[in-house]
Amino acid sequence: MKFKRILKWVLLAIPVLLILGVVFIIGASYLEHRELVELEKEKYPAPGNMVDLYNDGDKLHVYTEGEGDITLVFMSGLGTSSPKYDFKVLYEKLSDHYRIAVVERAGYGWSDITSNPRDLDTVLDETRTALKLSGESPPYVLFPHSLAGLEALYWANLYPDEIETIIGLDPLVPGYYEQAEEEPSFSGLVSFLANTGLMRNQPDVFQNNFPAMQKGLLSESEAEIVRTIFFRRVQTENMQEEINMLDLNAQIVSEQGTPDLPFHVFISNENDDKSWSENLTALATETSGEHFLMDAGHYIHLDKPGVIAEKSKELIERAVGN
């Protein structure tokens, strides 16, 4: 009988000990992750301007370089952890001729995570205010990638005097979103691994999930910096909220109609859904813009930066000339 009682307690203790062990591992990983984040922020401070938009402590990062009377504003797609380095291969080919600005939205890159909603009015106000506080002013040429296509169209309709033209990088437009059968979503497991710091223990996770790194476009020193940003900017709360607001934001832009300026677009040929390219082509045609179907992936600016840069110069000079 005594042996049976001991065995019973042992069997009860094992799962409890396992649970406590898992909790300890997760807790230790989380604390180490938070400590590493603070050390990494100190080691690699933001290369651009950190601007406090509303004097509430939440800051956005705006990276700028180059000179010129026109500023090219690069706007990242959903979930791009480091827009500054994602766009680098393209904007470095344009900054000899123009002023360039990369606005990292809340929850991206060096920008803080905010509790502000992700409706288009809020997001656009943050973008415009961040540019202003960084010393930038219109006219702008917008280079939206993916999700940022909605913000760019909204901006051009709401403040047409600020925008010379839009040059989309495989951007999302309302027409496609309204027809899409599936909505984007984030993995709960990935969010858990990111938030607890357990992702840091996954081999090659950064190498395989940051497109510019995948394509060998970062130097060793750049990769070291971007890796630290990646581990704190995977599927952030602000990114999730952008997904939650997609229905409403797409509807608002759709109801606005087309902007009264050329919407040029570089389109990836790797999307299996033909309505993606059809909607982009239709919007470009409707606004007297040009469209270019390219043998490239969704991160089209990483695959064809030289071609896009040269063609963009032509489009910009044509817009300015008008």
The CATH top-level class label of the domain at 49-186 and 235-321: Alpha Beta
CATH level-two architecture of the domain at 49-186 and 235-321: 3-Layer(aba) Sandwich
Q: How big a fraction of the residues is strand?
A: 5-15%
Number of helices: 15
Radius of gyration: 22 Å
Number of strands: 8
The stretches of 5 or more residues where confidence is low (pLDDT under 50) are none
Give the termini separation. Answer: 95 Å
Give me the side-by-side strand order of the main sheet: 1-2-4-3-5-6-7-8
Helix content: 40-55%
Mean of residue pLDDT values:
91
Key words describing this protein structure:
322 residues, alpha/beta, Rossmann fold, eight-stranded mixed β-sheet, 15 helices, 8 strands, 51% helix, globular
How would you sum up this structure, described in words?
With 322 residues, this protein is of the alpha/beta class. The chain has a domain at 49-186 and 235-321: 3-Layer(aba) Sandwich (Rossmann fold), CATH 3.40.50.1820. Helices cover 51% and strands 14% of the residues. It has 15 helices and eight strands. It has an eight-stranded mixed beta sheet, sandwiched between helices. α13 (274-286) links the parallel β7 (263-268) and β8. α5 (148-158) packs parallel to α12. The protein is globular. The protein starts with a helix and ends with a helix. The model has no long low-confidence stretch (mean pLDDT 91).
